[in-house]
Design goal:
- By secondary structure, the protein is of the alpha+beta class.
- It has helices at about 1-20, 25-35, 45, 60-70, 85-90, 95-105, 150-160, 170-175, 180-190, 200-210, 220-235, 265-275, 280-285, 330-340, 345-355, 365-380, and strands spanning about 40, 50, 80-85, 110-115, 120-125, 130-135, 145-150, 165-170, 195-200, 240-250, 250-260.
- Helix content is about 45%, strand content about 15%.
- Strand 4 (about 110-115) and strand 5 (about 120-125) form a beta hairpin.
- Helix 14 (about 330-340) runs parallel beside helix 16.
- Pfam families: Rep3_C (PF21205), Rep3_N (PF01051).
C-alpha cells in the first residue's frame, strides 16, 4: 500500500514539475518587474497560424499585444487579467472600437498542429480569448476597465513557449499597417538567433502575415502594397532594419528570404526620438517630405506617464570598467543580455570609439537604447565568441 502511495506521489510531483512557465514567461515577468515600454510576446503566439481566410485587424492585433503586455509573466495562469480602457484607446474618443476589438478576438480562429486521441496527425482549432467583461457604466472620462481570460489552449501554448520577441509598446501602437506589425514581430523573434532570417514560399508568407488568399494576387502589387510599406515603417519605428531577397524560378517569385539586422547606435537614437513624437506627420518624415501640424487640431494623446520601476540612469556612460559598481549595473546587465557572450568591457570600448563626442550628450532612455542597439549590432557583425 505504501509503495502505491509513493508512486502516486511521484506521479503528482512530475505533473507539478511539468506545469512551469517556459523561458518566454520568465522573460516577460522580468521585463514587467523592471518597468518600461518593452515586453515579451511568446514565439508560439507570434507564429500561430490563422484559419484560412481569417486574420486579425490592426486594432485587434494591437489589443492582443497590450493584453500580453499587461498579463506579463502571468499570462499562462488560469486567472483573469485587467486593463484600463484608457490604455487601449490612446487618444481615441468613445469606447465602441474596444467592443469591436474584443468581439473580433473572440470570434477569430487559430490553428496549430496536434495529435488526435488515436495518435494521428490533426489540426486543433481554437480562439485566444475565452471570456471578457467590459464595463459599460459611464464613470466619467476614461475610468472604465475590461477583464478577460485566455483560453486553456492559448495558455498551454504561452506556458510552453521557450522563444519570445522583445517588443516596444510605442512601436506596436505606432504601426499603421497590420502587415508591418506582423513582420515586426517575426523580426524581433528572430533577431538574436544565429541566422536572423525568415524564409518561406508565397503560401507561408501569406500565412505568416495574415494576407487573405484573394488579396494582392499579383506579386508586384504585393511588393508595393505590403512589403515596401512594411519595410518603411519597420525601418522607422523598430530597433532593427529589414531587407528581403526574392528567389525566382524563371520570372516567377517562388520564395522570399527576410533578413533582420540591429540598427547602429545613432539610428537607435533617431528611432527613440521618432517614437516620442506625435504620430501626425510621421509618414511625411518617413518619406522625407514636410508636413506642418497644428497643435490645436485633432486629438492629442496624453503625455506619457513615468513607469514604475528602475529609471534610466541620468549620468553619462561609464568611463571605466562595467564589471563593478551600482552605477554600472544597468549597462552591465544590458551588455550581458544582448552582447552574445562577449566581454562587456570590450563592447563598451567599441561603443565609446563608435560614438565619439556624441556620447557626452547622451543621457537617460536614449543612452540605454543606443547602448543596447550597439550590443545587438556587435553580435550581428562578429557572431558569438568561440
Amino acid at each position: 500500500m505504501e509503495s502505491e502511495v509513493g508512486q502516486i506521489a511521484e506521479a503528482v510531483e512530475e505533473d507539478l514539475e511539468e506545469v512551469t512557465p517556459g523561458r518566454a514567461m520568465r522573460v516577460a515577468a522580468a521585463l514587467k518587474a523592471k518597468g518600461g515600454d518593452e515586453f515579451a510576446k511568446p514565439g508560439s503566439i507570434i507564429e500561430i497560424k490563422f484559419v484560412k481566410g481569417e486574420s486579425l485587424s490592426l486594432t485587434a492585433s494591437r489589443l492582443l499585444a497590450l493584453m500580453i503586455l499587461t498579463a506579463g509573466g502571468d499570462a499562462w495562469e488560469d486567472r483573469p487579467h485587467r486593463i484600463r480602457k484608457a490604455d487601449i484607446r490612446r487618444g481615441h474618443k468613445g469606447n465602441e472600437r474596444i467592443t469591436d476589438m474584443l468581439q473580433e478576438l473572440h470570434r477569430t480562429l487559430f490553428a496549430v498542429d496536434d495529435k488526435s486521441w488515436r495518435g494521428k496527425k490533426a489540426t486543433l482549432l481554437f480562439s485566444l480569448i475565452s471570456r471578457s467583461r467590459e464595463e459599460t457604466e459611464e464613470e466619467g472620462g476614461e475610468a472604465g476597465w475590461i477583464e478577460w481570460e485566455f483560453t486553456p489552449d492559448a495558455r498551454k501554448l504561452i506556458q510552453a513557449s521557450e522563444t519570445y520577441a522583445v517588443l516596444n509598446r510605442q512601436a506596436v501602437l505606432g504601426f499603421r499597417s497590420n502587415y508591418a506589425l506582423k513582420l515586426y514581430e517575426l523580426g524581433a523573434l528572430r533577431l538574436h538567433r544565429r541566422q536572423a532570417t525568415w524564409r518561406g514560399d508565397m503560401q507561408a508568407l501569406r500565412a505568416a502575415l495574415g494576407i487573405p488568399p484573394d488579396v494582392y494576387t499579383d506579386f508586384a502589387q504585393l511588393r508595393r502594397k505590403v512589403l515596401e510599406k512594411a519595410k518603411s515603417e519597420i525601418d522607422q519605428l523598430a530597433h532593427f532594419r529589414v531587407e528581403w531577397r526574392e528567389i525566382r524560378q524563371g520570372r516567377t517569385v517562388t520564395e522570399l528570404e527576410f533578413r533582420f539586422e540591429p540598427k547602429g547606435a545613432p539610428e537607435v537614437i533617431e528611432t527613440v526620438d521618432e517614437l516620442d513624437r506625435h504620430s501626425a506627420g510621421r509618414q511625411a518624415r518617413r518619406e522625407g517630405t514636410v508636413e506642418n501640424v497644428s497643435v490645436g487640431q485633432g486629438a492629442i494623446p496624453a503625455p506619457r506617464k513615468a513607469v514604475a520601476g528602475r529609471k534610466p540612469p541620468e549620468a553619462g556612460f561609464p568611463r571605466g570598467s562595467l564589471r563593478y559598481g551600482d552605477d554600472e549595473a544597468e549597462f552591465r546587465s544590458i551588455g550581458r543580455q544582448y552582447g552574445g557572450g562577449w566581454d562587456v568591457d570590450m563592447i563598451a570600448d567599441g561603443f565609446r570609439g563608435h560614438m565619439g563626442e556624441r556620447l557626452e550628450k547622451l543621457r537617460g532612455a536614449k543612452l540605454i537604447a543606443a547602448w543596447k542597439g550597439f550590443c545587438e549590432g556587435w553580435v550581428n557583425r562578429r557572431g558569438r565568441p568561440q
